[in-house]
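Fold in tokens:
===
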Amino acid sequence: MKKNGTGKNTVIIKRLNAAHGQNGFDDFIPLRGDLLKEVHAAVTEIFDSLGGASLLKSSGDVYIKPNGVGADPYVYTRPEVLEAAIRYWRKAGARKIFIIENSSQGNYTRLVFEMIGYSKVCRENGAIPVYLDEEKTVSFNFTGKGPATDRDPRGYELTTFGMPKTVAEKLIRDKGKNLYINIPKLKTHTLSVVSLGIKNQWGFPPHGDRCLDHNYNLHSKIAGLLDHVRPDVTLIEGVEGTIHGHYPLRSMSNKCVRPFKVLAGGLNVVAVDIVGARMFGLGVGDIPHLRIAVDRGFGNGVERDEDIRLTGDYEDINNIDILNELPEYGGKYPSEMHPSLPHDVTVIKGREMACLEGCYGNSIGILQYLAFDYGGKGGWTLIAGKGFDAGAIAAVKGPVMVAGRCAIQEVGDALLKRLGKRNVYLSGECNDITASLEAMVHLMKVNMFRYTSRTSLNPLKALWLILQAKLHGSHGRQVNPACLVFKMR
């Protein structure tokens, strides 16, 4: 193992040159042959160049945080890259290796690990999975802003959050003893512009603590986590990358997934994210949470492109057009969701405010997902935001979903009085994915079995894993499967 190390401002990019093995992205297939070998070689080279075994700390333990947000194709860190990292640190002399994650709402982390192959990787390589949604939490303060007041109504509604015990104890209290490796997926993001190293830590707070302020305050909260916990190494997995947001529709995968075939790593998460953003043609000014992180000094002196030393297969940060196609997208890959919407759902957007980071972006994303990938039906109205035309609201006749507190406060009572409770569905927080899914599954008559059967996992095994998660105290928010038959709220 090399122990030369690099500076805190160095980011290493490695291209993967072998054929991807598929012509399109309708099917998500495992990495094989030369490409798999290249992944292991590139991971080794990057970690070696960053310091290798010399990065291990006094405990000898390594904590790896992949992006295991859910089980849909291309949204999570590939298990092959996770396996390469585990094998590297095992060979480097790690005592124990832990894989930590808290999957998104509607998911049990232990079930996601089984569905996407992380459990198998752990079993075969002696790593220990840690399901953060099953842990007790320690309270921390969200930094960067104070609470909302009459003088500052755009302050935080929720000023504290829970941090899972493993993170609080091993990566914060004992950070000098344990090595923390952050392995995000290369993704644009509908709500946060990109999902890279900084955003990957947003998986730490429990689901309930992420829902409030998931609006114009989201970027401040994402950046603020760096006040509490920062990775020692960040490695972006970009075998593929997503554009048009972080959850590419399966029916549009060939428009939303690109074969970047690249890995990028460094010791400074802000520097690595700046480079990752450049792969999408984006700069610090395009990504509010990255701008906030720089302004608050979390980059340890890295404030702009010129502060970064780029090595590996690219040396010019202003010329990272991996696929030589950025001009086709006007110089920037789109982070906004694909503009297609179902023709049979009426969307009423607030004129004064409709947060892409929250009620609006969250609701439109779920609408597309259920309509185009699961055949969901229309014939209803979605209302999100603040500041509505009175005539448009008065014209609503059929079933309606009202998303977000602002919309509920403005039009909720009037709609309930006029249309009745059975026709009005409420999702009362900025980003309550669970409530929104329950409402839309019922409205759109989505087959819940089809929705939950996204892999070939044996249903009995899935049920057993869900039971285990519940017995171990999972506090993750889950969709009630009865929502297809019954209106839940």
In short: Residues 184 and 231 are 11 Å apart (CA to CA).
